[in-house]
Amino acid sequence: MATEERILDVGRDILLSEGLQAITTNELARRARVSKKTLYSFFPSKDALVEAIVVSFMKRHFARWDRILEQDTSSMDRILASLEFIGHIMPQIQNRLVGQLETAAPSLWARIDGIRVERIEKMRKLLIQAQEDGFLRADVNPDHWLLLLTGTVQSVLTPKVLLQTGIPLVELVESVKSIYFEGLLTDKGHQHIAAKETSQ
């Protein structure tokens, strides 16, 4: 494994097991078995190092969502799997990052939000496909849906709101799902979901 990737790998392990604030240059250099000089040859500052670790951590987790979005299954099944991913995986990410990003690296939230929004755009394409497949109402403009959902994600599903309200992310995600998705379903969409729930 290349030195830079080993440093990021160790950083992800620390982040996952101990949280963002446990990432120090001394500890990272020790665990990655490199000198601090080597560390700084790849990352010019601690902030740059932390940012690289967090972005790498997010992309590693979101790669699973990318695989869901690219599955060879129906558009409705990919949407449902995406919503399940958001509801179950995002709280795990939240537990590791949200409480500490506000104090340790608040500027990182913009990068993380950008990573999330990229996947929302992929969801928009899935919505269009699901409309064509008859699962979702054709009278809802996907661009309007994307605008409403993105606005909600950026203004509500944020570290500040989650910390101030104390509402669990999984509950907010369920509400977003109800408000922005279930109202779009056609009879065919409802029947498809009911059939999946019956078969599980």
What does this structure look like?
With 200 residues, the chain is an all-alpha fold. The protein has a domain at 61-199: Tetracycline Repressor, domain 2. Helices cover 78% and strands 0% of the residues. Helix 1 crosses helix 2 (25-32) and helix 6 (108-132) packs antiparallel against helix 7 (142-155). The protein starts with a helix and ends with a helix.
For this entry, give a set of tags.
200 residues; mainly alpha; Tetracycline Repressor, domain 2; elongated
Summary of the model, kept short:
The protein has 200 residues and is mainly alpha-helical. It has helices at 3-18, 25-32, 36-42, 46-69, 75-104, 108-132, 142-155, 159-165, 169-180, 187-199. The chain has a domain at 61-199: Orthogonal Bundle (Tetracycline Repressor, domain 2).
- Mean model confidence by pLDDT: 82
Structural class, by secondary structure, is mainly alpha
Question: Looking at the chains present, what oligomeric state does this protein adopt?
Answer: single chain
Whole-angstrom Rg: 19 Å
* Distance, first to last CA: 41 Å
CATH fold name of the domain at 61-199: Tetracycline Repressor, domain 2
Shape: elongated
Q: So what's the CATH class of the domain at 61-199?
A: Mainly Alpha
Query: Describe the biggest sheet?
Result: none
What fraction of the residues are assigned to beta strands by DSSP?
A: under 5%
Query: What's the total helix number?
Result: 10
- CATH architecture name of the domain at 61-199: Orthogonal Bundle
> Which consecutive residue ranges, at least 5 long each, have pLDDT under 50?
none
Number of β-strand runs? 0
Reading the helices and strands in chain order gives HHHHHHHHHH
Helix residue percentage: over 70%
